[in-house]
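Ops channel
N.P.: pipeline sanity check, posting one input/output pair.
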């Protein structure tokens, strides 16, 4: 039984959820996150990615965890890093897309949140690497280039609002955009 909260409204879907219904899955999920973090700290990135993927499949997809800080920074951010370390760029792009979508749809996260700008930057950089790698059909390459442009543009917009137009992070995003 939860001692702190009887029920809450999900910030994503507004459903009223009884705290007791989510407490046990969250405890189990927290243990899985600790296990994945330990693998990550030991540079066992492929194994860590597998645990993070299981968390997403088991808890997020089943709506046992709603879009929240835990998903963004406890699961998706290290999952993206695992994919990058193991050179799985398409998977990294998919995880970054989901992460950005969570941030965009969560009313508790500001429209121009600095970390949102950084995730857009990382997504643009991932598409840039996919384009450089080549090997995809012309239509897929055109889509990658378009998504790269959109991500760098959004990163520049957010960074301009957060840091100002002359900050190095803003200039970095604008320079990447200008190169396209």
């Amino acid at each position: 039984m939860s001692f702190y909260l009887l029920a809450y409204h999900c910030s994503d879907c507004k459903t009223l959820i009884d705290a007791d219904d989510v407490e046990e899955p969250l405890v189990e999920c927290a243990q899985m996150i600790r296990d994945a973090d330990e693998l990550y700290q030991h540079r066992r990135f492929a194994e860590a990615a597998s645990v993070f993927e299981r968390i997403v499949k088991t808890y997020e997809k089943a709506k046992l965890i709603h879009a929240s800080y835990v998903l963004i920074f406890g699961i998706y951010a290290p999952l993206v890093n695992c994919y990058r370390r193991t050179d799985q760029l398409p998977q990294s792009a998919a995880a970054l897309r989901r992460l950005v979508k969570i941030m965009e749809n969560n009313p508790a996260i500001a429209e121009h949140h600095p970390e949102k700008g950084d995730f857009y930057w990382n997504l643009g950089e991932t598409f840039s690497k996919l384009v450089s790698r080549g090997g995809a059909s012309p239509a897929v390459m055109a889509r990658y280039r378009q998504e790269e442009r959109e991500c760098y543009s959004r990163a520049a917009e957010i960074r301009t609002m957060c840091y100002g137009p002359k900050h190095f992070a803003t200039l970095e995003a604008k320079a990447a955009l200008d190169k396209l």
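N.P.: looks fine end to end. The chain is about 70% helix and 5% strand.
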